[in-house]
Amino acid sequence: MLRRVFQRVFLREELWGGNRETFHKQFFSRESLFLWIYHTHGRRRDKYRQYRQNNTYPHLTWIQHATPVATRRWLKRLTLPANA
Q1: What are the two backbone dihedrals, phi and then psi, of residue 38, each rounded to the nearest 5 degrees?
Q2: pTM here?
Q3: CB neighbour list of residue 70: distance below 8 Å, 6 or more residues apart
Q4: 41 lies in which domain range?
Q5: R_g of the chain, CA atoms, integer Å
Q6: Is 42 helix (H, G, I), strand (E, B) or coil?
Q7: Does the residue 16 lie in any domain?
Q8: CA-to-CA dists, residue 37 to 3, 40, 57, 64, 76, angstroms
Q9: Domain presence at residue 77
Q10: Which of 6, 26, 35, 38 is the most buried (most CB within 10 A)?
């Protein structure tokens, strides 16, 4: 998330319709992505943990990776051609 924000702020990456994120908005405003993550991460983590434990959505297969590297490996396997 930090890398994405820095890329958008400092490289002036366009989001949509010419909009760009500003340093002030991302680090010093109530609309900050950092603040939103800080305030919601624990609550969302607990909610999804309960969903898994209670089998709230039995039609879903829950996949959890311990590291970003493990996630990248898993995604790479999904995108490989069937004969690879």
Answers
A1: -60, -40
A2: 0.56
A3: none
A4: 2-59
A5: 18
A6: helix
A7: yes
A8: 14, 5, 24, 19, 27
A9: no
A10: 26
